[in-house]
Amino acid sequence: NKTAPGWCLSDFRQWAKRMLELRWRPSRCGLITAAFLTAVSPSTALRAPLPTNSGIVNTDPSDGYELQKQIDSAIASGAALVTALKRNYEFAPGTSLRISGATNLAVGGISGGLTQLWFACGQGVHIANATDVVFERFEIDYKTPCFSQGKVTTPPVAVGKNESVGVVFDQDNFPSAEESVALAGNGSLKVTYWDPTSLRMIAHGNHMVVNVSFGPETLIEYWGKVSPAGAVTKGTLVTMHPRLGISQGTGVAGGLTYMITNSSRVSTVNVSVYGGATEAIVEGGGEGNHTYRFVRVVRREGQTPVRLLAANADGFHSSCVTQGPTLVDSEISWTGDDLLNIHSRMAIVLQPLSSTAAYIIDTVGSSSPADYDDSTLTLERTRVGDHIAFWALGSLEANGSSNVASLQRVYDASVIANAEEAQIAINAPPYSQRISHPFGSRVWLVNWTTPVSLSRFTLVDIPRLRPVGARVLRCYLHDSYMRTGLYDSPNQRIEGNHFARAFPLYVGETGDGWLEGPPSVGPTIVQGNTFEDIFGGCGWHVNSKTTHQVVVVNNSCVDSNRVTVPCPPCSSAGEPVAPAPPRSGHSSLRYGHS
Protein backbone atom coordinates (compact mmCIF):
# COMPACT_ATOMS: atom_id res chain seq x y z
CA ASN A 1 0.00 0.00 0.00
CA LYS A 2 3.03 2.30 0.00
CA THR A 3 2.64 4.82 -2.83
CA ALA A 4 5.09 7.59 -1.93
CA PRO A 5 7.63 8.54 -4.64
CA GLY A 6 10.86 6.58 -4.49
CA TRP A 7 9.34 3.52 -2.79
CA CYS A 8 10.61 0.28 -4.35
CA LEU A 9 10.73 -3.43 -3.59
CA SER A 10 14.16 -3.26 -1.96
CA ASP A 11 12.89 -0.52 0.41
CA PHE A 12 9.95 -2.71 1.35
CA ARG A 13 12.17 -5.73 2.01
CA GLN A 14 14.45 -3.62 4.18
CA TRP A 15 11.53 -2.27 6.20
CA ALA A 16 9.80 -5.65 6.52
CA LYS A 17 13.03 -7.30 7.71
CA ARG A 18 13.40 -4.59 10.39
CA MET A 19 9.80 -5.02 11.54
CA LEU A 20 10.25 -8.79 11.92
CA GLU A 21 13.41 -8.27 13.94
CA LEU A 22 11.60 -5.98 16.38
CA ARG A 23 8.50 -8.13 16.69
CA TRP A 24 10.18 -11.54 17.08
CA ARG A 25 13.74 -11.10 18.31
CA PRO A 26 14.59 -9.68 21.75
CA SER A 27 17.69 -7.96 20.34
CA ARG A 28 18.76 -6.98 16.87
CA CYS A 29 22.29 -8.07 17.63
CA GLY A 30 21.20 -11.29 19.28
CA LEU A 31 23.34 -10.52 22.34
CA ILE A 32 20.52 -10.80 24.86
CA THR A 33 17.98 -13.60 24.77
CA ALA A 34 14.79 -14.09 26.72
CA ALA A 35 16.30 -17.06 28.56
CA PHE A 36 19.34 -15.00 29.55
CA LEU A 37 17.16 -12.18 30.86
CA THR A 38 15.20 -14.47 33.14
CA ALA A 39 18.34 -16.07 34.56
CA VAL A 40 20.27 -13.04 35.78
CA SER A 41 19.68 -10.09 38.06
CA PRO A 42 18.14 -6.89 36.59
CA SER A 43 21.34 -4.91 37.08
CA THR A 44 23.17 -7.41 34.88
CA ALA A 45 20.43 -8.17 32.38
CA LEU A 46 19.65 -4.58 31.59
CA ARG A 47 22.98 -3.57 30.16
CA ALA A 48 22.47 -2.16 26.68
CA PRO A 49 23.32 -4.76 24.04
CA LEU A 50 25.61 -2.20 22.37
CA PRO A 51 28.41 -0.37 24.21
CA THR A 52 27.69 3.06 25.64
CA ASN A 53 29.70 6.11 24.72
CA SER A 54 31.33 7.95 27.60
CA GLY A 55 31.99 11.56 28.41
CA ILE A 56 31.19 14.85 26.73
CA VAL A 57 32.66 15.43 23.29
CA ASN A 58 33.30 18.56 21.28
CA THR A 59 30.68 18.93 18.58
CA ASP A 60 29.33 21.60 16.27
CA PRO A 61 25.74 22.83 16.86
CA SER A 62 25.21 22.60 13.10
CA ASP A 63 25.58 18.81 13.28
CA GLY A 64 22.03 18.37 14.52
CA TYR A 65 20.71 20.19 11.48
CA GLU A 66 22.42 17.62 9.26
CA LEU A 67 20.60 14.73 10.95
CA GLN A 68 17.30 16.64 10.83
CA LYS A 69 17.70 17.18 7.07
CA GLN A 70 18.47 13.50 6.60
CA ILE A 71 15.26 12.51 8.41
CA ASP A 72 13.10 15.12 6.68
CA SER A 73 14.34 13.95 3.29
CA ALA A 74 13.55 10.33 4.12
CA ILE A 75 10.01 11.20 5.22
CA ALA A 76 9.42 13.27 2.10
CA SER A 77 10.69 10.54 -0.26
CA GLY A 78 9.07 7.63 1.53
CA ALA A 79 12.39 5.96 2.35
CA ALA A 80 12.31 3.08 4.82
CA LEU A 81 15.56 3.62 6.70
CA VAL A 82 17.70 6.46 8.06
CA THR A 83 21.09 5.62 9.56
CA ALA A 84 23.01 8.33 11.38
CA LEU A 85 26.37 9.11 9.79
CA LYS A 86 28.12 10.34 12.94
CA ARG A 87 28.59 9.23 16.52
CA ASN A 88 27.69 12.66 17.92
CA TYR A 89 25.22 15.36 16.95
CA GLU A 90 24.77 18.63 18.79
CA PHE A 91 21.58 20.65 18.41
CA ALA A 92 21.59 24.43 18.64
CA PRO A 93 19.75 26.06 21.58
CA GLY A 94 16.02 26.14 20.92
CA THR A 95 16.26 23.19 18.53
CA SER A 96 14.87 19.68 18.93
CA LEU A 97 15.10 16.62 16.69
CA ARG A 98 11.64 16.16 15.17
CA ILE A 99 10.24 13.14 13.36
CA SER A 100 6.84 14.31 12.18
CA GLY A 101 4.34 12.56 9.92
CA ALA A 102 6.54 9.53 9.29
CA THR A 103 5.13 6.12 8.32
CA ASN A 104 7.04 2.84 8.09
CA LEU A 105 10.38 4.45 8.88
CA ALA A 106 13.32 3.15 10.94
CA VAL A 107 15.74 5.78 12.31
CA GLY A 108 18.95 4.31 13.72
CA GLY A 109 22.24 5.38 15.20
CA ILE A 110 25.52 4.94 13.39
CA SER A 111 26.00 1.48 11.92
CA GLY A 112 27.44 -0.93 14.50
CA GLY A 113 27.26 1.50 17.41
CA LEU A 114 25.36 4.18 19.28
CA THR A 115 24.90 7.80 18.30
CA GLN A 116 24.76 10.52 20.94
CA LEU A 117 22.33 13.43 20.64
CA TRP A 118 23.26 16.57 22.62
CA PHE A 119 20.61 19.19 23.40
CA ALA A 120 20.17 22.43 25.30
CA CYS A 121 17.80 22.22 28.28
CA GLY A 122 14.20 22.38 27.16
CA GLN A 123 14.83 20.43 23.96
CA GLY A 124 14.88 16.78 22.98
CA VAL A 125 13.45 14.24 20.54
CA HIS A 126 9.83 14.68 19.45
CA ILE A 127 8.06 12.03 17.38
CA ALA A 128 4.62 13.26 16.28
CA ASN A 129 1.79 12.03 14.06
CA ALA A 130 3.79 8.92 13.23
CA THR A 131 2.83 5.32 12.46
CA ASP A 132 5.04 2.22 12.56
CA VAL A 133 8.27 4.08 13.26
CA VAL A 134 11.42 2.62 14.83
CA PHE A 135 13.90 4.78 16.78
CA GLU A 136 16.96 2.84 17.91
CA ARG A 137 20.61 2.97 19.02
CA PHE A 138 20.71 6.52 20.41
CA GLU A 139 21.86 8.18 23.61
CA ILE A 140 20.29 11.49 24.67
CA ASP A 141 22.06 13.93 26.95
CA TYR A 142 22.71 17.60 27.75
CA LYS A 143 26.16 19.18 27.69
CA THR A 144 25.02 21.42 30.54
CA PRO A 145 22.89 19.64 33.16
CA CYS A 146 19.34 20.90 33.64
CA PHE A 147 19.64 21.21 37.43
CA SER A 148 21.88 22.70 40.12
CA GLN A 149 23.99 20.46 42.36
CA GLY A 150 25.97 21.25 45.51
CA LYS A 151 26.45 20.61 49.22
CA VAL A 152 24.51 21.57 52.33
CA THR A 153 26.41 24.17 54.37
CA THR A 154 23.63 25.00 56.85
CA PRO A 155 21.30 22.09 57.76
CA PRO A 156 17.54 22.61 57.51
CA VAL A 157 15.85 24.85 60.10
CA ALA A 158 12.14 25.35 60.63
CA VAL A 159 10.41 28.33 59.03
CA GLY A 160 6.85 27.92 60.25
CA LYS A 161 5.50 24.83 58.49
CA ASN A 162 8.38 24.97 56.03
CA GLU A 163 12.13 24.53 56.26
CA SER A 164 15.10 26.51 54.99
CA VAL A 165 18.48 25.06 54.05
CA GLY A 166 21.80 26.71 53.16
CA VAL A 167 23.63 25.36 50.10
CA VAL A 168 26.80 26.12 48.16
CA PHE A 169 26.31 25.03 44.56
CA ASP A 170 28.96 23.71 42.16
CA GLN A 171 28.89 26.43 39.49
CA ASP A 172 31.80 25.00 37.51
CA ASN A 173 29.96 21.88 36.35
CA PHE A 174 26.29 22.75 36.91
CA PRO A 175 23.95 25.72 36.48
CA SER A 176 23.94 28.24 39.32
CA ALA A 177 20.88 28.60 41.53
CA GLU A 178 19.95 31.72 39.56
CA GLU A 179 20.16 29.79 36.30
CA SER A 180 17.93 26.96 37.60
CA VAL A 181 15.37 29.49 38.76
CA ALA A 182 15.42 31.12 35.32
CA LEU A 183 15.18 27.70 33.67
CA ALA A 184 12.05 26.89 35.68
CA GLY A 185 10.36 30.12 34.58
CA ASN A 186 6.76 29.93 35.81
CA GLY A 187 7.17 26.26 36.66
CA SER A 188 8.12 24.81 40.00
CA LEU A 189 11.43 23.83 41.59
CA LYS A 190 12.18 20.92 43.87
CA VAL A 191 14.97 20.12 46.35
CA THR A 192 16.37 16.59 46.57
CA TYR A 193 18.89 15.34 49.16
CA TRP A 194 21.61 12.71 48.59
CA ASP A 195 23.97 10.68 50.74
CA PRO A 196 27.53 11.83 49.87
CA THR A 197 28.93 8.27 50.14
CA SER A 198 26.34 6.05 48.49
CA LEU A 199 25.05 8.83 46.19
CA ARG A 200 21.53 7.61 46.93
CA MET A 201 18.57 9.79 47.79
CA ILE A 202 17.65 10.46 51.41
CA ALA A 203 14.77 12.23 53.14
CA HIS A 204 12.37 11.42 50.31
CA GLY A 205 9.35 13.64 49.67
CA ASN A 206 8.04 16.54 47.64
CA HIS A 207 10.21 19.39 48.91
CA MET A 208 8.80 22.10 46.65
CA VAL A 209 10.69 25.40 46.66
CA VAL A 210 8.80 28.52 47.74
CA ASN A 211 11.67 30.98 48.20
CA VAL A 212 15.32 31.29 47.13
CA SER A 213 17.73 33.92 48.40
CA PHE A 214 20.91 34.12 46.34
CA GLY A 215 24.33 34.81 47.79
CA PRO A 216 27.64 33.07 48.62
CA GLU A 217 25.39 30.62 50.43
CA THR A 218 22.06 30.07 48.69
CA LEU A 219 19.14 29.88 51.14
CA ILE A 220 16.29 27.67 49.91
CA GLU A 221 12.92 27.53 51.63
CA TYR A 222 10.62 24.64 50.74
CA TRP A 223 7.27 23.46 51.99
CA GLY A 224 7.20 20.41 54.20
CA LYS A 225 9.92 19.13 56.49
CA VAL A 226 12.67 16.56 56.18
CA SER A 227 11.77 13.15 57.56
CA PRO A 228 13.28 11.71 59.62
CA ALA A 229 14.41 14.88 61.36
CA GLY A 230 18.18 15.24 61.31
CA ALA A 231 18.63 13.14 58.16
CA VAL A 232 20.18 16.10 56.33
CA THR A 233 23.45 17.39 57.79
CA LYS A 234 26.34 19.58 56.71
CA GLY A 235 28.00 17.97 53.68
CA THR A 236 24.83 16.26 52.45
CA LEU A 237 24.59 16.56 48.67
CA VAL A 238 21.65 18.47 47.24
CA THR A 239 20.08 19.10 43.85
CA MET A 240 17.59 21.81 42.92
CA HIS A 241 15.73 21.14 39.71
CA PRO A 242 12.75 22.32 37.63
CA ARG A 243 9.90 19.86 38.00
CA LEU A 244 6.91 20.98 35.94
CA GLY A 245 8.23 23.10 33.13
CA ILE A 246 11.20 24.51 31.30
CA SER A 247 10.91 28.05 29.91
CA GLN A 248 13.46 27.56 27.16
CA GLY A 249 12.07 29.06 23.97
CA THR A 250 9.98 26.61 21.99
CA GLY A 251 11.07 23.53 23.89
CA VAL A 252 9.47 20.13 23.78
CA ALA A 253 6.46 20.64 26.04
CA GLY A 254 8.24 22.08 29.00
CA GLY A 255 11.46 20.12 28.68
CA LEU A 256 10.14 16.62 28.06
CA THR A 257 13.24 14.89 26.72
CA TYR A 258 11.95 12.03 24.56
CA MET A 259 8.30 12.49 23.57
CA ILE A 260 5.87 10.66 21.30
CA THR A 261 2.54 12.38 20.57
CA ASN A 262 -0.51 11.42 18.53
CA SER A 263 1.21 8.36 17.10
CA SER A 264 0.70 4.63 16.69
CA ARG A 265 3.08 1.72 17.16
CA VAL A 266 6.40 3.50 17.63
CA SER A 267 9.19 1.13 18.71
CA THR A 268 11.99 2.61 20.83
CA VAL A 269 14.92 0.21 21.04
CA ASN A 270 18.28 0.52 22.78
CA VAL A 271 17.89 4.20 23.69
CA SER A 272 19.46 5.74 26.81
CA VAL A 273 18.50 9.06 28.41
CA TYR A 274 21.11 10.53 30.74
CA GLY A 275 19.44 13.81 31.59
CA GLY A 276 15.67 14.20 31.56
CA ALA A 277 15.14 17.97 31.69
CA THR A 278 11.79 17.38 33.38
CA GLU A 279 10.20 14.04 32.45
CA ALA A 280 12.57 11.77 30.55
CA ILE A 281 10.31 9.59 28.35
CA VAL A 282 6.75 10.69 27.60
CA GLU A 283 4.02 9.41 25.33
CA GLY A 284 0.69 11.16 24.94
CA GLY A 285 -2.38 11.11 22.74
CA GLY A 286 -3.36 9.05 19.73
CA GLU A 287 -3.63 5.27 19.62
CA GLY A 288 -0.34 4.60 21.38
CA ASN A 289 0.48 0.90 21.45
CA HIS A 290 4.17 1.85 21.60
CA THR A 291 6.97 -0.56 22.53
CA TYR A 292 10.10 0.27 24.53
CA ARG A 293 12.86 -2.36 24.67
CA PHE A 294 16.33 -1.97 26.21
CA VAL A 295 15.46 1.61 27.15
CA ARG A 296 17.41 3.19 30.01
CA VAL A 297 16.96 6.36 32.05
CA VAL A 298 20.20 6.21 34.02
CA ARG A 299 23.29 8.10 35.10
CA ARG A 300 26.09 8.15 32.55
CA GLU A 301 28.80 5.77 33.73
CA GLY A 302 32.27 7.19 34.37
CA GLN A 303 31.20 10.82 34.39
CA THR A 304 32.96 13.15 36.87
CA PRO A 305 31.43 14.74 38.80
CA VAL A 306 28.47 12.37 38.91
CA ARG A 307 25.24 13.99 37.79
CA LEU A 308 22.95 12.70 40.50
CA LEU A 309 19.65 13.00 38.63
CA ALA A 310 18.84 11.06 35.48
CA ALA A 311 15.46 12.80 35.23
CA ASN A 312 14.23 15.90 37.02
CA ALA A 313 10.69 14.54 37.27
CA ASP A 314 9.14 11.24 36.11
CA GLY A 315 11.29 8.67 34.34
CA PHE A 316 8.50 7.29 32.12
CA HIS A 317 5.10 8.93 31.69
CA SER A 318 2.25 7.63 29.53
CA SER A 319 -0.76 9.91 29.27
CA CYS A 320 -3.98 9.76 27.26
CA VAL A 321 -3.21 7.00 24.76
CA THR A 322 -5.92 4.45 23.97
CA GLN A 323 -3.53 1.48 23.86
CA GLY A 324 -1.10 1.35 26.77
CA PRO A 325 2.67 0.99 26.36
CA THR A 326 4.82 -2.13 26.47
CA LEU A 327 8.01 -1.52 28.48
CA VAL A 328 10.32 -4.54 28.41
CA ASP A 329 13.84 -5.31 29.64
CA SER A 330 14.45 -1.68 30.53
CA GLU A 331 15.81 0.40 33.40
CA ILE A 332 14.36 3.62 34.86
CA SER A 333 16.25 5.24 37.74
CA TRP A 334 17.43 8.32 39.66
CA THR A 335 14.24 10.31 39.13
CA GLY A 336 13.25 13.48 40.96
CA ASP A 337 9.62 12.33 40.97
CA ASP A 338 7.81 9.08 40.11
CA LEU A 339 9.57 6.29 38.24
CA LEU A 340 6.59 5.53 36.01
CA ASN A 341 3.03 6.73 35.42
CA ILE A 342 0.35 5.37 33.10
CA HIS A 343 -3.02 7.13 33.09
CA SER A 344 -5.70 9.00 31.15
CA ARG A 345 -7.21 12.38 32.03
CA MET A 346 -10.52 13.37 33.59
CA ALA A 347 -12.60 16.37 32.54
CA ILE A 348 -14.60 18.53 34.98
CA VAL A 349 -18.25 19.55 34.91
CA LEU A 350 -18.20 23.34 35.03
CA GLN A 351 -21.95 23.90 35.10
CA PRO A 352 -24.83 21.40 34.83
CA LEU A 353 -27.52 22.78 32.50
CA SER A 354 -30.02 19.93 32.84
CA SER A 355 -30.03 16.22 33.58
CA THR A 356 -28.79 15.61 30.02
CA ALA A 357 -26.48 18.59 29.36
CA ALA A 358 -23.58 20.47 30.92
CA TYR A 359 -20.68 22.79 30.24
CA ILE A 360 -17.57 20.64 30.76
CA ILE A 361 -13.92 21.75 31.00
CA ASP A 362 -11.59 19.74 28.78
CA THR A 363 -8.69 19.78 31.23
CA VAL A 364 -5.01 20.15 30.42
CA GLY A 365 -2.34 19.19 32.90
CA SER A 366 1.25 19.60 33.94
CA SER A 367 1.75 15.83 34.04
CA SER A 368 1.24 15.36 30.31
CA PRO A 369 1.94 17.28 27.10
CA ALA A 370 -1.71 18.40 26.97
CA ASP A 371 -0.64 22.01 26.74
CA TYR A 372 1.42 21.07 23.70
CA ASP A 373 -0.64 18.63 21.67
CA ASP A 374 -4.45 18.54 21.32
CA SER A 375 -4.31 14.78 20.81
CA THR A 376 -3.96 14.37 24.59
CA LEU A 377 -7.22 16.17 25.38
CA THR A 378 -10.33 14.24 26.35
CA LEU A 379 -13.33 16.05 24.82
CA GLU A 380 -11.30 17.07 21.78
CA ARG A 381 -11.20 13.34 20.90
CA THR A 382 -14.72 12.41 22.07
CA ARG A 383 -17.24 11.32 19.45
CA VAL A 384 -21.03 11.27 19.31
CA GLY A 385 -22.12 7.89 20.64
CA ASP A 386 -19.19 7.50 23.05
CA HIS A 387 -19.97 6.17 26.49
CA ILE A 388 -19.54 8.94 29.07
CA ALA A 389 -19.10 8.20 32.79
CA PHE A 390 -19.38 10.56 35.74
CA TRP A 391 -17.54 10.32 39.06
CA ALA A 392 -17.90 12.15 42.36
CA LEU A 393 -15.22 14.73 43.10
CA GLY A 394 -12.94 13.61 45.93
CA SER A 395 -14.37 10.13 46.54
CA LEU A 396 -14.23 8.97 42.89
CA GLU A 397 -17.47 7.07 43.45
CA ALA A 398 -19.55 6.27 40.35
CA ASN A 399 -22.15 8.97 39.60
CA GLY A 400 -23.96 7.50 36.58
CA SER A 401 -23.24 7.17 32.90
CA SER A 402 -24.80 7.68 29.49
CA ASN A 403 -23.90 8.12 25.80
CA VAL A 404 -22.86 11.35 24.11
CA ALA A 405 -25.63 12.80 21.95
CA SER A 406 -23.77 15.92 20.80
CA LEU A 407 -20.86 18.15 21.76
CA GLN A 408 -19.47 21.46 20.60
CA ARG A 409 -16.74 23.86 21.71
CA VAL A 410 -17.98 26.93 23.63
CA TYR A 411 -16.42 30.36 23.09
CA ASP A 412 -18.84 32.50 25.10
CA ALA A 413 -16.75 34.98 27.14
CA SER A 414 -18.80 34.63 30.32
CA VAL A 415 -18.54 30.83 30.26
CA ILE A 416 -14.79 30.96 29.67
CA ALA A 417 -14.40 33.49 32.50
CA ASN A 418 -16.24 31.07 34.79
CA ALA A 419 -13.85 28.30 33.74
CA GLU A 420 -10.83 30.50 34.43
CA GLU A 421 -12.02 30.91 38.03
CA ALA A 422 -12.73 27.19 38.49
CA GLN A 423 -9.33 26.24 39.88
CA ILE A 424 -9.67 28.71 42.76
CA ALA A 425 -13.26 27.61 43.41
CA ILE A 426 -12.52 23.87 43.39
CA ASN A 427 -9.79 24.29 46.01
CA ALA A 428 -11.94 26.48 48.29
CA PRO A 429 -14.80 25.35 50.58
CA PRO A 430 -17.08 23.51 50.19
CA TYR A 431 -15.01 21.49 47.67
CA SER A 432 -11.61 21.92 49.36
CA GLN A 433 -9.63 19.92 46.81
CA ARG A 434 -5.84 19.89 46.30
CA ILE A 435 -5.64 20.50 42.56
CA SER A 436 -2.68 22.84 42.55
CA HIS A 437 -1.96 22.95 38.81
CA PRO A 438 -3.94 25.03 36.27
CA PHE A 439 -6.29 22.89 34.17
CA GLY A 440 -7.24 25.39 31.50
CA SER A 441 -10.46 26.97 30.26
CA ARG A 442 -11.40 24.91 27.19
CA VAL A 443 -15.16 24.45 27.59
CA TRP A 444 -17.51 22.18 25.67
CA LEU A 445 -21.28 21.94 25.68
CA VAL A 446 -22.02 18.22 25.96
CA ASN A 447 -25.45 16.59 25.65
CA TRP A 448 -26.08 12.94 26.54
CA THR A 449 -28.98 10.54 26.09
CA THR A 450 -29.95 9.26 29.56
CA PRO A 451 -30.73 11.63 32.48
CA VAL A 452 -27.98 11.83 35.12
CA SER A 453 -28.09 14.06 38.19
CA LEU A 454 -24.84 16.02 38.43
CA SER A 455 -23.33 18.72 40.59
CA ARG A 456 -20.68 21.31 39.79
CA PHE A 457 -17.17 19.83 39.50
CA THR A 458 -18.31 16.25 38.97
CA LEU A 459 -15.51 14.41 37.15
CA VAL A 460 -15.96 13.08 33.62
CA ASP A 461 -14.37 10.02 31.98
CA ILE A 462 -14.66 8.65 28.42
CA PRO A 463 -14.05 4.87 28.72
CA ARG A 464 -13.04 4.52 25.04
CA LEU A 465 -10.02 6.73 25.77
CA ARG A 466 -8.70 4.67 28.68
CA PRO A 467 -5.12 3.36 28.14
CA VAL A 468 -5.88 -0.34 27.79
CA GLY A 469 -3.40 -3.19 27.99
CA ALA A 470 -0.14 -1.74 29.37
CA ARG A 471 2.70 -4.21 29.90
CA VAL A 472 5.69 -3.63 32.20
CA LEU A 473 7.85 -6.77 32.04
CA ARG A 474 11.30 -7.69 33.37
CA CYS A 475 12.31 -4.09 34.10
CA TYR A 476 14.52 -2.61 36.80
CA LEU A 477 12.93 0.53 38.28
CA HIS A 478 14.85 2.02 41.18
CA ASP A 479 15.89 5.06 43.20
CA SER A 480 13.03 7.53 42.95
CA TYR A 481 12.18 10.48 45.15
CA MET A 482 8.50 9.49 44.95
CA ARG A 483 6.47 6.47 43.77
CA THR A 484 7.52 3.24 42.13
CA GLY A 485 4.68 4.03 39.77
CA LEU A 486 1.02 4.73 39.13
CA TYR A 487 -0.57 2.02 36.99
CA ASP A 488 -4.00 3.05 35.71
CA SER A 489 -4.35 0.86 32.63
CA PRO A 490 -7.28 -1.57 32.34
CA ASN A 491 -6.13 -5.12 31.50
CA GLN A 492 -2.53 -4.40 32.48
CA ARG A 493 0.29 -6.77 33.44
CA ILE A 494 3.13 -5.84 35.81
CA GLU A 495 5.33 -8.91 35.85
CA GLY A 496 8.89 -10.02 36.59
CA ASN A 497 10.16 -6.57 37.56
CA HIS A 498 12.61 -5.43 40.24
CA PHE A 499 11.47 -2.30 42.13
CA ALA A 500 13.88 -0.68 44.60
CA ARG A 501 14.14 2.34 46.90
CA ALA A 502 10.98 4.28 46.18
CA PHE A 503 7.47 4.70 47.54
CA PRO A 504 5.08 1.81 46.75
CA LEU A 505 3.56 0.78 43.44
CA TYR A 506 0.02 2.14 43.04
CA VAL A 507 -2.78 0.41 41.15
CA GLY A 508 -5.84 2.62 40.75
CA GLU A 509 -6.35 6.29 41.55
CA THR A 510 -6.15 7.29 45.20
CA GLY A 511 -7.29 10.86 44.65
CA ASP A 512 -7.99 13.42 41.97
CA GLY A 513 -5.34 16.05 42.68
CA TRP A 514 -3.82 15.60 39.22
CA LEU A 515 -7.10 14.82 37.43
CA GLU A 516 -5.56 11.57 36.26
CA GLY A 517 -7.79 8.63 35.44
CA PRO A 518 -9.41 6.40 34.67
CA PRO A 519 -11.35 6.15 37.94
CA SER A 520 -12.02 2.46 37.25
CA VAL A 521 -9.10 0.09 36.58
CA GLY A 522 -9.20 -3.64 35.99
CA PRO A 523 -8.37 -6.39 35.45
CA THR A 524 -4.75 -6.16 36.60
CA ILE A 525 -2.04 -8.76 37.21
CA VAL A 526 0.90 -7.93 39.52
CA GLN A 527 3.01 -11.08 39.48
CA GLY A 528 6.53 -12.29 40.16
CA ASN A 529 7.99 -8.92 41.08
CA THR A 530 10.69 -8.17 43.65
CA PHE A 531 10.25 -5.13 45.91
CA GLU A 532 13.50 -4.01 47.53
CA ASP A 533 13.68 -1.51 50.39
CA ILE A 534 10.33 0.11 49.53
CA PHE A 535 9.53 3.04 51.80
CA GLY A 536 6.73 2.42 54.27
CA GLY A 537 7.45 -1.30 54.58
CA CYS A 538 4.94 -2.42 51.94
CA GLY A 539 5.28 -3.09 48.25
CA TRP A 540 2.04 -2.11 46.55
CA HIS A 541 -1.13 -0.13 47.13
CA VAL A 542 -4.35 -1.26 45.44
CA ASN A 543 -7.26 1.16 45.78
CA SER A 544 -10.30 -1.06 46.30
CA LYS A 545 -12.66 1.81 45.42
CA THR A 546 -11.30 2.30 41.92
CA THR A 547 -10.07 -1.17 40.93
CA HIS A 548 -11.56 -4.60 40.27
CA GLN A 549 -10.19 -8.03 39.39
CA VAL A 550 -6.70 -7.25 40.67
CA VAL A 551 -4.53 -10.37 41.00
CA VAL A 552 -1.37 -9.97 43.10
CA VAL A 553 0.63 -13.22 43.32
CA ASN A 554 4.16 -14.57 43.79
CA ASN A 555 5.78 -11.24 44.64
CA SER A 556 8.65 -11.01 47.12
CA CYS A 557 10.08 -8.27 49.31
CA VAL A 558 13.65 -7.77 50.53
CA ASP A 559 15.20 -5.12 52.76
CA SER A 560 18.24 -2.96 52.04
CA ASN A 561 20.48 -5.96 52.89
CA ARG A 562 18.50 -8.16 50.47
CA VAL A 563 17.10 -10.21 53.35
CA THR A 564 13.59 -11.50 52.67
CA VAL A 565 10.99 -9.65 54.73
CA PRO A 566 7.18 -9.79 54.98
CA CYS A 567 5.54 -8.39 51.88
CA PRO A 568 2.13 -6.99 52.84
CA PRO A 569 0.04 -4.71 50.66
CA CYS A 570 -0.16 -1.11 51.82
CA SER A 571 -3.14 0.23 53.68
CA SER A 572 -4.41 3.69 52.83
CA ALA A 573 -2.03 4.94 55.52
CA GLY A 574 0.85 3.74 53.38
CA GLU A 575 0.25 6.42 50.77
CA PRO A 576 2.95 9.09 50.68
CA VAL A 577 1.14 12.34 51.40
CA ALA A 578 2.99 15.63 51.16
CA PRO A 579 1.76 18.94 52.58
CA ALA A 580 -0.50 20.87 50.24
CA PRO A 581 1.33 23.47 48.16
CA PRO A 582 0.36 27.13 48.45
CA ARG A 583 -3.10 27.78 47.00
CA SER A 584 -1.75 30.43 44.69
CA GLY A 585 0.32 27.82 42.84
CA HIS A 586 3.39 28.86 40.87
CA SER A 587 2.94 32.56 41.56
CA SER A 588 3.93 32.04 45.21
CA LEU A 589 7.60 31.46 44.32
CA ARG A 590 9.79 34.27 45.58
CA TYR A 591 13.40 34.84 44.57
CA GLY A 592 15.90 37.47 45.62
CA HIS A 593 19.38 38.20 46.90
CA SER A 594 20.31 37.83 50.54
Can you put this structure into words, describing what you see?
With 594 residues, this protein is mainly beta. 11% of the residues lie in helices and 37% in strands. The chain is built from 7 helices and 42 strands. It has a 19-stranded mixed β-sheet that branches. Strands 3, 6, 14, 16, 19, 22, 31, 34, 35 and 38 form a 10-stranded mixed β-sheet that branches. Strands 8-9-12-11-10-13 form a 6-stranded antiparallel barrel. A hairpin with a 2-residue loop joins β23 and β24 (357-361). It is globular, with a radius of gyration of 23 Å. Residues 1-13, 15-54, 247-253 and 572-594 have low confidence and may be disordered.
Largest sheet: 19 strands, mixed
Tell me the number of strands. 42
Helix content: 10-25%
Low-confidence sequence ranges: 1-13, 15-54, 247-253, 572-594
The DSSP helix count reads 7
Averaged pLDDT: 84
Using the CA coordinates, give the radius of gyration. 23 Å
Query: Which outline best applies?
Result: globular
Structural class: mainly beta
How large a portion of the residues is in β-strands, by DSSP E?
35-45%
End-to-end distance, in Å? 66 Å
Topology:
Blueprint (H helix, E strand, L loop, with lengths): L8 H16 L9 H6 L2 H4 L17 H15 L3 E3 L4 E3 L6 E4 L2 E6 L6 E5 L5 E4 L2 E12 L5 E12 L2 E8 L7 H8 L4 E6 L6 E14 L3 E6 L13 E6 L15 E4 L5 E7 L7 E4 L6 E3 L2 E2 L18 E4 L6 E3 L2 E5 L4 E6 L1 E8 L2 E5 L25 E5 L6 E13 L2 H8 L1 H6 L15 E6 L10 E3 L9 E3 L2 E5 L2 E5 L4 E4 L2 E3 L2 E5 L8 E2 L6 E4 L2 E3 L7 E3 L7 E4 L2 E3 L5 E2 L24 E4 L1
